[in-house]
Amino acid sequence: MRPLQIYIHIPFCVKKCAYCDFLSFAADEKMKRAYIGMLLQEIEAWQDRGDESISTVFFGGGTPSVLPAEAIAAVLEALKKKFTFDRDAEITVECNPGTLTADKLRIYRQAGINRLSIGLQSAQEEELRLLGRIHTWEDFLESFRLARQAGFGNINVDLMSALPGQRLAIWRDTLEKVLALAPEHISAYSLIIEEGTPFYGRYQEDARRRERGEECQILPSEDEEREMYRLTETLLEEHGYARYEISNYALPGFACRHNCGYWERREYKGFGLGAASLVDHMRFSNTTDLHRYLEGNWEGEAQERLTREEEMEETMFLGLRMREGVSFAHFRQQFGVEMETVYREVLQKLERQGLLEQTKETVRLTERGTDISNYVFAEFLL
Amino acid sequence: MEEPIVSAEIMVTTEFIGPIMQLCEERRGNYLGMEYMEETRALLKYELPLNEIIYDFFDALKSRSRGYASFDYEMKGYERSELVKLDILVNREEVDALSFIVHAGTAYERGRKMCEKLKEEIPRQLFEIPIQAAIGSKIIARETVKAMRKDVLAKCYGGDITRKKKLLEKQKEGKKRMRQVGNVEIPQKAFMSVLKLDDK
Questions:
Q1: Which residue, A48, A119, A241, A286, could crosslink A249 as a Cys pair with Cβ 3.0–4.6 Å?
Q2: What is the pTM (predicted TM-score) of this model?
Q3: Residues 245-274, chain A: which have Cβ within 8 Å of B?
Q4: Which residues of B9-23 are buried (b: 16+ CB within 10 A; e: fewer)?
Q5: How do residues A163-194 score in pLDDT, each as one tens digit?
Q6: Tell me, what's the ipTM?
Q7: Residue A64 near residue A10 (C-beta atoms within 8 A)
Q8: What is the domain partition of chain A in residue ranges?
């Protein structure tokens, strides 16, 4: 049986947050019902290879928890009917604290959901308002409590640093408040000012200044942003969390297997609006046009068949995101050739520049390499 | 030291006489006189150092007269002048292509502007890059391009991968179009931009 991961996209939100450039929007009940109906059809229609066993399922968005719990349960059931599942498959639902109830959580548990990812972003009320979040810190505390009560033993909390006006001490406060709850997993991202969002209009100028290394008016400076990153590492490690990827931390045994699949280049099939897939050496995504999707035209643009070289490149720039890096054995196994042979000069140069470190088994980013990982990754393009 | 001087005649519509005279003054022009050709057109006569008109004088003339001015000149001869060689050092290495002969009086201004322009055009790299303007061994202006501090993509999940790859490819392409000067990568357009310092 070969492993396959499943991603389900739920593009609906109560309201769009000011920084968000994901494929998500508010919609009425009729629209949501139609979408779920089409999603189920898409799942049914997909020609699988017949020998897969599902290792992970991830409901992402948008806000999957904005749907009635029965809708999530129905999709999961359709997947279970179609596919064989690993006994210990990891099944995650992304949630927003403003949308969780004890009932919903109970139904999730019954359906077989065993992991929750809750979007908190910040423990500070002013920051939550600034971000345009629909919940308060208290809402989150309540949601977290209900989740534990419902029996969830694998919870992730999403956090964001380098917010406008945020200082190191405030970020520390958010971290400490969350650590006190002891979630199994924490994702801590640095805010990115994305085009097409309200934050872009407000902070783009400042973001440009920061890129040039100049003084900023409201965004934390480059140095402060890196300090926040270092603080996250230190504080979380003190509390027993291991940083296993650039932005992801987990207690032993609780790394997110679904996401590791992306960086380790395991196969995954995405269902829903704009969902991406990597199957049979091909990357492709569904259409991002909701009307087309609802008409049953799920396909997006042409699929791209990856060349062997492209797969080597991906193995490096995705694998190096993991703290443990890329193992020479894995590379040899995948491609039948030594990493050293393909990348001798690149590896030497990056090591000389203090951006990569090698052990007998692996190559991985150094601290400085992590700070400028994009520069490192570009070097691996053939 | 001596420098070549030209006699120039500039035809301009009367409303732009002021801005054009200002331009010539800026370029160390020596005013000889003015004739009115018609009610709305005048002929300005100036002597100008060839050095000052050789790069972007014509562009500046056109832009300050909304395209209406025209310009004609002929060599007059050589005159004594206080000229100096302005060198540009990037990461402490002299960049030959950017050396200029300039009048001593404008050297500081020119040097400062060139350093500022280069600082804008040269992308941040793995180390700090000092940009200096020098006359002989004397540094007369300096800017610094700070070392790259952060260049990270915080999130990279399934749907992000294709876009991420495109970004990395663009980054790699951009590097190819750079000129290597010592350890520093300088984009081609940085060299051109330094010549067009009159851009307002």
A1: A241
A2: 0.89
A3: 246-247, 259, 262-263, 268, 270, 274
A4: ebbbeeebbebbbeb
A5: 999 999 999 999 999 999 999 999 999 999 99
A6: 0.91
A7: yes
A8: 2-263, 309-382
